[in-house]
């Protein structure tokens, strides 16, 4: 009788090793470039507006073009990855956003920019949920939130790196140079992904992949493991047949899925509203461009710090005792940003606090989604939560642009924006009432 190996138990009882850190690092680099590219539009937008003669209100569609692509990329590539695997989708998506970021750098008109940024967004939206899923599936349960959040700091680091280098690149070489960097680096990464990035071992088990392939990956996790001919592999999760999206609403997951969608929608609305408009707010209030970019960068710096600090408490105490506090403290930070117009140091401090709570809350939500959904639907669950969230991300900059066109003050605008974390707090608290023992 063939031996049966429980892959879940084998991963859970071992410490995280070098191979698992390699997987997380490759996903983090991918997410780093994703963050750089996603945030880059906020830094190049003033220069594009000046070159093309666009009003501040007309920047809304430019902010939104890649976000629409992110929406469809997350919705499409999540289910695709649950069918064909995470590795292939990550490489395809990295190639897409690399090629079309370079294409956007050659644009000479607003319509060209909108098209190229939309297709870029498809790749960005597909890479993100699969990086989260792949990292989670190589990590023991007791450290899953920590590793996923540390991996996802790549996004905030990439966005912060974009802010750090954008002003210098734009001043020296023009706004197109920001996207030269954002296009070339992903194309250099794809060969490294092909060589070193493995397929999810849990995905291979639930899709009944060939045993020798699984055995070789287990040996890289546990050097003492010795696969044998005919060895069978299993995980502590049921196989899911049919459309992955349908499974998000089965076996008691309906309420959790709806609350996750509410959480992602409202928090990403706040997130993209803040990261797109804070640099413009600062610059419009008379602060020089370099300082305005630094203020915008502090938003991502706060998010990085939160992601490094919050994972351990989530693994220790559970997500529903930690995440609501982040969203709750975000409310006053967001509301007060609009009252600090023209005060660089105060604006920088408030922006840092908002980034700590909003970006940290979003990264925590990513980890929560990866924990909530099993392997057979994890990429779909994370992808659709991010996809629904992208609707909020699209609406945030658009609503802000429309209200500014109606002569709303920044104070009133950011006060209105503070309603979003109120909704996110309510959603995660409600989810905790039903799934309070989830870890």
Overall number of strands = 2
Query: Outline, from the CA principal axes?
Result: globular
CATH architecture annotation name: Up-down Bundle
Number of domains: 1
Query: Which runs of at least 5 residues are low in confidence (pLDDT < 50)?
Result: none
In DSSP terms (H or I, runs of 4 or more residues), the helix count works out at: 16
State which percent range the strand residues make up. under 5%
Strand order, biggest sheet?
1-2
Backbone structural class? mainly alpha
Protein described:
- With 439 residues, the chain is an all-alpha fold.
- It has one domain: Growth Hormone, Chain: A (Up-down Bundle).
- 78% of the residues lie in helices and 1% in strands.
- The protein is built from 16 helices and two strands.
- A two-stranded parallel ribbon has the order 1-2.
- Helix 2 packs antiparallel against helix 7.
- The radius of gyration is 21 Å and the shape is globular.
- It starts with a strand and ends in a 5-residue tail after the last helix.
Quick structural gist:
The protein contains 16 helices and two strands. The protein has 439 residues and is mainly alpha-helical.
């Amino acid at each position: 009788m063939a031996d049966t190996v429980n892959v879940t138990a084998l991963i859970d009882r071992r410490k995280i090793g070098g191979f698992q850190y390699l997987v997380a690092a490759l996903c983090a680099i991918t997410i780093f470039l994703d963050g750089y590219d996603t945030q880059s539009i906020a830094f190049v937008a003033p220069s594009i507006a000046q070159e093309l003669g666009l009003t501040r209100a007309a920047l809304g569609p430019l902010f939104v073009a890649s976000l629409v692509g992110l929406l469809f990329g997350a919705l499409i590539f999540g289910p695709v990855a649950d069918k064909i695997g995470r590795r292939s989708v990550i490489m395809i998506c990295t190639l897409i956003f690399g090629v079309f970021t370079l294409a956007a750098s050659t644009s000479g008109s607003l319509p060209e920019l909108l098209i190229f940024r939309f297709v870029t967004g498809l790749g960005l939206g597909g890479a993100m949920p699969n990086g989260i899923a792949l990292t989670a599936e190589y990590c023991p349960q007791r450290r899953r939130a920590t590793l996923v959040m540390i991996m996802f700091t790549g996004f905030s680091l990439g966005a912060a790196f974009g802010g750090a280098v954008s002003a210098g690149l734009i001043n020296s070489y023009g706004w197109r140079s920001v996207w030269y960097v954002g296009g070339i680096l992903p194309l250099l990464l794809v060969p490294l992904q092909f060589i070193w990035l493995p397929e999810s071992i849990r995905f291979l088990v639930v899709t009944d992949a060939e045993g020798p392939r699984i055995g070789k990956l287990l040996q890289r996790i546990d050097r003492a493991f010795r696969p044998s001919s005919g060895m069978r592999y299993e995980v502590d999760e049921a196989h899911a047949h049919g459309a992955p999206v349908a499974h998000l609403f089965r076996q008691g997951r309906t309420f959790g899925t709806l609350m996750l969608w509410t959480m992602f929608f409202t928090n990403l609305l706040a997130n993209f509203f803040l990261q797109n408009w804070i640099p413009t707010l600062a610059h419009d209030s008379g602060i020089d461009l370099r300082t305005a970019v630094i203020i915008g960068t502090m938003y991502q710096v706060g998010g990085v710090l939160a992601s490094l600090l919050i994972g351990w408490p989530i693994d220790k105490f559970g997500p529903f005792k930690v995440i609501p506090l982040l969203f709750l403290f975000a409310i006053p930070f967001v509301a007060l940003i609009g009252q600090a117009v023209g005060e660089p140091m105060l604006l920088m401090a408030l922006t840092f606090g908002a980034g700590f709570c909003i970006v940290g809350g979003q990264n925590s939500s990513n980890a929560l989604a990866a924990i909530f959904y099993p392997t057979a639907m994890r990429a779909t669950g994370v992808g659709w939560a991010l996809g629904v969230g992208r609707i909020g991300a699209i609406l945030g900059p658009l609503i802000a642009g429309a209200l500014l066109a109606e002569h709303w003050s920044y104070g009133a605008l950011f006060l209105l924006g503070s309603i979003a974390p109120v909704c996110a707090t309510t959603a995660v608290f409600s989810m905790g009432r039903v799934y309070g023992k989830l870890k």
